[in-house]
Amino acid sequence: MIKATKKRNLLSNIHIHGTNVYMTHQQFVDDNHLFGKATIREVIQMNNILVDFQDASSMLLNKDK
Predict the structure, then answer these.
(1) Which segments of 1-65 does DSSP mark as H helices, in order?
(2) CA–CA separation, 41 vs 4, rounded Å?
(3) What is the pTM of this model?
(4) Residue 10, domain member (yes or no)
(5) 44 within some domain
(6) Structural domain for 28, as ranges
(7) CA 27 – CA 29 distance, rounded (Å)
C-alpha cells in the first residue's frame, strides 16, 4: 500500500543527506515508521494506510506514539 500510494504521488519520501537513499517507511518487528511531508494530504494518506493495516492484521494502533 505504501508503494502504491507513493506511485500515485500521494505520499512523499525523504532523502538521507549524503547518500543515494530515499525512504517512505521503515518496518521493525513491532513498529512501523512512515516518512513524508508535513501536509494534511500526506497525514490523511498515512492514516488511511495505518487503518487499513490495522484492519488487515487485527493489530491495534498505538495513537499515543
Answers:
(1) 2-7, 40-57
(2) 15
(3) 0.74
(4) no
(5) yes
(6) 21-60
(7) 7
Over residues 1-59, the pLDDT tens digits come to 888 988 999 999 999 999 999 999 888 887 888 888 889 999 999 999 989 989 998 88
In terms of Cα–Cα distance, which of 63, 14, 6 is closest to 35?
14
- For residues 4 and 15, give the distance between their C-alpha atoms in angstroms, rounded to a whole number: 19
What pLDDT is stored for residue 65 in this prediction?
72
DSSP 8-state class, residue 60:
P
Cell numbers at 22, concatenated: 530515499
C-alpha cell at 38: 508535513
For residue 32, the tally of other CB atoms under 10 A from its CB is 14
Residue 46 lies inside a defined structural domain of this protein: yes
Q: Grid coordinates representing 14?
A: 525523504
28 is a domain residue: yes
Distance, CA of 2 to CA of 26 (rounded, Å):
11
